[in-house]
Specification:
two-stranded antiparallel ribbon; elongated; single chain
């Protein structure tokens, strides 16, 4: 894909979209952990956001000038890791 873009085979890219879905966080009874702790850079944005931007930059052969992120919490309640009690997201 990078070679095709660099050679001009598919034209100029004007927009890129990246959708990240992970079954790791899809388990309903999985306790809260660093993925949901904003103090630890939690969530998908903190975990892979920079890698997505870096990979787009590499594939496109350009500097990224604008980024828009839309995030949501699909499972809003999980067991607390320490107590086991159900609690709401704290991101």
């Amino acid at each position: 894909m990078r070679a095709m873009l660099q050679s001009g085979a598919i034209g100029q890219v004007r927009h890129c979209s990246y959708i990240f879905r992970s079954d790791y966080r899809g388990v309903l009874d999985r306790p809260w952990d660093w993925w949901a702790d904003s103090q630890m850079g939690g969530g998908t944005l903190g975990a892979i956001g920079s890698h997505v931007i870096d990979s787009f930059s590499w594939v496109l052969g350009t500097e990224i000038t604008s980024v828009l992120g839309m995030l949501s919490t699909h499972i809003k309640e999980r067991p607390d890791k320490a107590s086991g009690a159900t609690s709401r997201s704290y991101v």
